């Protein structure tokens, strides 16, 4: 399909490149985000996530490539229909939470009175009423971040862009945010967020773009990424040896009474038949579909997977 020919994309980007002083931070990124989807940009520190999001929002322009956001080639024209949580958090410390949200609404064209009313509603809906009249400086970091997050939703945007929304939140509030993202998508809002945590992308996203070193080696359905790897079999047998051993593929490795191997292309039924007929004495057998982590390793490589893990460890230490 040619660029810009389908109206059903909230975001379409092709060949985005961004260089800083000769260093290529984003190196030809293609992304298509369907309307109403939850879309994750998954990659380690320095992979190019923030730079990509900033280009999509029109905060910076790409050196080359094109993007179309909510049908517009100049994303700033549709800024009022977009909510954005930047990586750098921050609200005016002296402002009360309600005012801070109403202020963000005003920046998106919502009258202050309406913004204040919506701010109170949002705070109440999210169990934060008690923060309404407190100054931002009186709130914890995590709480202030939640207030800022509500500020990105107050003008009821069609598209929300969250840069690392989970970092800085404790487990409880991460869970609340996951729920909020699902609710937004269920109402038809498109959500795109960056993360270095595979579990968040795996649990939440319909589609992901895997990004490493400024390139996107995979963009598409989470299931499609996982289906790139074959299921793994874990087999426990009573018999130590016998005719059944011929049913195991060459990559099978043993560990005590267990065998681990990749499910052969022919599928599970011929395998089971051969094991039974060959008198393996099956004690247990499980077939596991690879997760997004294994898919990430296969797609982006061991080095990128290690970088992702290091990013997560650094973030944990900083929290
Ligand atoms: N304004 C800038 N000037 C120079 N280099 C930049 C600038 N912005 C980003 N970079 C560099 O581009 C690369 C990609 O950065 P980017 O912030 O997009 O990565 P990221 O995946 O969002 O990671 P992080 O979570 O660390 O921000 C990094 O090497 C970064 O140092």
Describe the model:
The chain is α/β, with parallel strands linked by helices. It folds into 2 domains: 9-224, P-loop containing nucleotide triphosphate hydrolases (Rossmann fold, 3-Layer(aba) Sandwich), CATH 3.40.50.300; 232-288, no CATH class. It is 34% helix and 26% strand. The chain contains 10 helices and 13 strands. It has helices at residues 49-57, 97-107, 112-125, 141-151, 171-186, 198-204, 222-226, 268-277, 292-300, 302-318, and strands at 9-20, 23-34, 38-42, 64-69, 82-85, 159-163, 190-195, 207-212, 215-221, 232-237, 253-255, 258-262, 282-288. The protein has a 6-stranded mixed sheet with strand order 5-6-7-3-8-9, with helices on both faces. A hairpin with a 2-residue loop joins strand 8 (207-212) and strand 9 (215-221). Helix 2 crosses helix 3 (112-125), helix 2 (97-107) runs parallel beside helix 4 and helix 9 (292-300) crosses helix 10 (302-318). The longest helix is centred in the last third of the chain and has 17 residues, at 302-318. It is elongated and about 80 Å long. The two termini are 44 Å apart. The mean pLDDT is 92. Bound molecules: adenosine-5'-triphosphate. GO terms for molecular function: ATP binding. Keywords: ATP-binding, Nucleotide-binding, Transport. Belongs to the ABC transporter superfamily. InterPro entries: AAA+_ATPase (IPR003593), ABC_transporter-like_ATP-bd (IPR003439), P-loop_NTPase (IPR027417). Pfam families: ABC_tran.
